[in-house]
Amino acid sequence: MQKSNVNKVVLAYSGGLDTSVIIPWLKENYTSCKVVAFIADIGQQLNDINEIKIKAKQLGADECYVIDIKEEFVSDYIYPMLKTGAIYENSYLLGTAIARPIIAKTQVDLALRIGADALCHGATGKGNDQVRFESTYAALAPQLHIIAPWREWKLKSRKELLNYLKKLGISSNASTEKIYSKDENVWHISTEGGILEDPWNIATKECWTWTLDPLDAPDQPENITIKINQGGIISVNGENLNPYQCLHNLNVLGAKHGVGRIDIVENRLIGIKSRGCYETPGGTIMMTALRAVEQLVMDRDSLKLRDYLAKEMSYLIYDGKWFTPTSKSIQSAALSLAEDINGEITIQLYKGQSKAIQKKSGNSLYSREFATFGEDTVYDQGDAEGFIRLYSLPSRIRALKNKFN
């Protein structure tokens, strides 16, 4: 599609430096096109959404829509992800990655509703988000044209973006001395860029936003109780809450104790390694609680399958494949496995750590009578002899064959 043929574009607008440049850039380069800014409310706290909306209009957006999707985000995306156990490269709780499918879906829905013929995002040509946004666009509305400014314009760095805005007389909160890329939603906040681009540099206080430094956290541990039903958190400290409220409350509790900080180098989908400081306090607590109940309830084969599904799902989410048959199948399997994941957990929060110190479940397969080191009347230890002979039979046959050959 030629630029002159684009009549209306919906931009996923965050209020950050990149998308703030994109609005005037679109007006300058797609001259006959109406620019509609779309702001997804996914629980971000750093910036006032009303101020972001005002800023979008000041930058030249013809229309601006704010759509609150934070409760849907937690219940329909985060909770299903939690049931799969997905963690990317054994560290990253997928805070940015899991938000992209719902943002892109809502953007598509808005575009179709208002008759737009194009979609626009601010992801760079080096990152994962371009794939995540555009894979969702392709799955839900392949007929819409895609504008990816970082792959079109001649601006090569965020320093040049600042200069572009300066020439237009537009102020920005970012600076050439401290250009951090932050992504925030109710599940996590990430910080990238700046001094973090050198992995030898120690992350400074500016690299952390939500959580207290574990060294400065309270000297006394805090115990909290969590109830789980079918793999979902339903109660915190005896108070029944919806998924969003559970996560919000656990974020507050976890942040106070410095829980959920990671400083990692990860493999991006396109092959570049990147470093980020991620904070997921409530999510870390949720993962701890769910895994504790699974230890009680899941048999060995079920847990093995869940672990396999977790790794596969982590790649699907990271790679932008939420709206695919494979993703749907894994979620269905995880939902089935989670049917008996009910229980109550006591979590201890202390100096950056989240530990399950008490656990119980009506579906627990743990039996003190069988596991005890004391005397019991339910297990005949002599039965193990026959089991071991059969279990080790292939090794025995192999050894005998080698001996006589």
From TrEMBL:
Single Gene Ontology MF annotation: argininosuccinate synthase activity
Residue numbers binding L-citrulline: Y92, N128, R132, S181, S190, E266, Y278
Instruction: Provide the protein's localization.
Output: Cytoplasm
Quote any Pfam family the record assigns: Arginosuc_synth
List the transmembrane segments. none
BP GO annotations: argininosuccinate metabolic process; L-arginine biosynthetic process; urea cycle
> At which positions is ATP bound?
A12, Y13, S14, G15, G16, L17, D18, T19, S20, A40, G122
Q: Tell me which residues make up the Arginosuccinate synthase C-terminal domain.
A: 180-397
Q: Provide the binding site for L-aspartate.
A: T124, N128, D129
Query: GO terms for CC?
Result: cytoplasm
The record's section on NCBIfam families has: argG, PRK00509.1
Family to which this protein belongs:
Belongs to the argininosuccinate synthase family. Type 1 subfamily.
Provide the protein name. Argininosuccinate synthase
